[in-house]
């Protein structure tokens, strides 16, 4: 499998490129609008054809590249079925498998950070969006976030996968690139809790400022990052 972890330093977002083989079809997870040209160059250089672009959830901190990539490459755009983005070409359901060439992504509904958060399992890797971060977890205080749902997604869904599963998050602010579920279960401070109530207590105390781009990014991302047409 061809696999690349790409980074947007402005929003500390990881974007993932996956493809079955050289010359084959490719998919991107969580592409950033400002990086679209770079993704397209890399895809060309690797002799790949982009056929799918996926967002794990409606991002609040950057504008998605989904719409632009679809415009440029005719790829399909995918989010989970709970997404409010009516611009996507397909909404994937919990438990289903999305296939691109030789790559199979099992769709896992993992709400809590937002109510439209999904994770994607590909063999021994799980792309967790902001549901599970390395030594952290996604905030739950906006976009219908819910710490109780997040606890359930973390403990009853992600941590039920094999412990050696590699964790590839949607963001990292310290430069960590990959972890495993075992490692996170043992060392992630957010996971050292015994109940959903205890998790909610931690999350409700965070009092984080809103992301700088939130007011722009959320409405833009509901339209796949494409500017809404101004009325004539
Ligand atoms: Fe997020």
Describe this structure as you would to a colleague.
- The chain is of the alpha/beta class.
- The protein is built from 6 helices and 14 strands.
- It has helices at residues 36-45, 66-73, 147-156, 181-187, 196-204, 214-222; strands spanning 2-8, 13-19, 25-29, 49-54, 76-80, 90-92, 97-100, 103-109, 118-122, 125-129, 132-133, 136-137, 166-169, 179-180.
- Helix 3 packs across helix 5 (196-204).
- 46% of the residues are buried.
- Bound molecules: fe (ii) ion (FE2).
- Fe (ii) ion (FE2) binds next to loops.
Compact overview of the structure:
With 232 residues, the protein is of the alpha/beta class. It has helices at 36-45, 66-73, 147-156, 181-187, 196-204, 214-222; strands at residues 2-8, 13-19, 25-29, 49-54, 76-80, 90-92, 97-100, 103-109, 118-122, 125-129, 132-133, 136-137, 166-169, 179-180. The longest helix is centred in the N-terminal third of the chain and has 10 residues, at 36-45.
> Quick one: overall form?
globular
Task: Tell me the β content.
Answer: 25-35%
For the biggest β-sheet, the strand order reads: 1-2-3-4-5-6
- Look at the structure and give the mean pLDDT: 95
Bound molecules: fe (ii) ion
């Amino acid at each position: 499998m061809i696999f690349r972890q790409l980074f947007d330093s402005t929003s500390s977002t990881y974007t993932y490129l996956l493809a079955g083989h050289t010359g084959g079809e490719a998919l991107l997870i969580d592409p950033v609008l400002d990086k679209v040209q770079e993704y397209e160059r890399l895809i060309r250089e690797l002799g790949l054809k982009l056929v799918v672009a996926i967002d794990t959830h409606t991002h609040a901190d950057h504008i998605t590249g989904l719409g632009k990539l679809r415009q440029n490459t005719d790829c399909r755009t995918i989010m989970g079925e709970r997404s409010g983005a009516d611009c996507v070409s397909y909404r994937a359901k919990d438990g289903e498998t999305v296939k691109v060439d030789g790559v199979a992504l099992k769709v896992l509904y993992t709400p809590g950070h937002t109510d439209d958060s999904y994770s994607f399992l590909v063999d021994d890797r799980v792309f967790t969006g902001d549901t599970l971060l390395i030594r952290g977890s996604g905030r739950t205080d906006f976009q219908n976030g819910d710490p109780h749902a997040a606890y359930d997604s973390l403990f009853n869904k992600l941590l039920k996968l094999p412990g050696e599963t590699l964790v590839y998050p949607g963001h990292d602010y310290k430069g960590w690139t990959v972890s495993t579920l075992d490692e996170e279960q043992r060392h992630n401070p957010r996971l050292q809790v015994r109940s959903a109530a205890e998790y909610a207590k931690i999350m409700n105390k965070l009092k984080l400022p809103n992301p700088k781009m939130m007011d722009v990014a959320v409405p833009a991302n509901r339209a796949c990052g494409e500017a809404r047409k101004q009325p004539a």
